[in-house]
Design a protein that fits this description.
319 residues, alpha/beta, DHBP synthase, Rossmann fold, 2 domains, twelve-stranded mixed β-sheet, four-stranded parallel β-sheet, 11 helices, 32% helix, 20% strand, globular, binds threonylcarbamoyladenylate, binds magnesium ion
Length: 319
Amino acid sequence: MAEIGKDIQKAQEILNKGGLIGMPTETVYGLAGNALNAEAVAAIFSTKNRPSFDPLIMHTYSLEQVARYVSNIPEKAKILAERLWPGPLTLLLEKKSIIPDLVTSGLNTVAVRIPGKKITLELLKELDFPLVAPSANPFGYVSPTTAQHVNDQLGEKIEYILDGGSCEIGIESTIIGFEDGSPVIHRMGGISKEKIESLVGKVALKPHSSSNPKAPGMLKNHYSPGKPIILGDLQQLKKEIGETDRLGAIAFKEAIKGIAEEKQMILAPSGELSEAAQNLFAALRSLDNKEIDIIIAELVPDHGLGRAINDRLKRAAAK
Ligand code: TXA
Ligand code: MG
């Protein structure tokens, strides 16, 4: 198992040698390595079993640092960066050649963000290079929102996990690219479409596709726990499936009758979508580890963060 701790210097030593660490962010934990070191980047892909056509996000601590690695920052990207970083926002910007092609899977844009965890920003400031970090889960599985989640799945493969506590946002960053300067959402995430539109006006939504590896990471059956998930009305689904104690449920804010309490995950007793986002991945993991065969889940209200939550639920349920 990896060591879990708050030792920035230790994390720095490992990264300087080309090694990988578990790294906290406000969205999910990442598996981080030196973005400018092609061997470290290759190790990230192999540690996660990630296909090489799925590019990585580069993490930095300042807009000045970003400017060193990209050749152009569109006006609307600047506005979003200034208003929302550090935060759960990733921008796709034209890359400079210093960034290894492996990072971007050969694309001419690089995904960048400034994450919002204090300990990680301190680490990034100490380093002479930015970090690339995909979510720290085996490819296709649910993203980790605690250091322990990272240890459970990748603990045999890495030495150290920097502990930043649990993730305040709980789902991955919103990814925005630019077409002729106009913003396009590539992945819904921790910042809502409404929030983005309030800053830069109308944004388009790029439809995902599982058949187009150039719209990567958007594979339909991402975020899958090991068990089948069925989406719908919980009472109705329970009726259809019938009497069984092998059933687990994910509910938005209220428990349903007839399923044991420990087999039900209530995402947001408060009814707040931000609370549901925080709890979603831990809920999927927890049900995955229980004695059940099937998970039923209901969608949440489809606005604000709810859109990103429903996106993850639908992909977790896709075969
Ligand atoms: O919140 C997050 O974004 C977390 C934390 C660790 O920062 N990271 C994360 O990374 O979710 P990952 O690798 O699990 O997802 C990155 C997504 C992938 O779907 C990838 O295809 C997309 O970003 N991506 C990266 N570079 C891209 C590019 N140049 N064009 C289009 N999509 C890109
Ligand atoms: Mg991921």
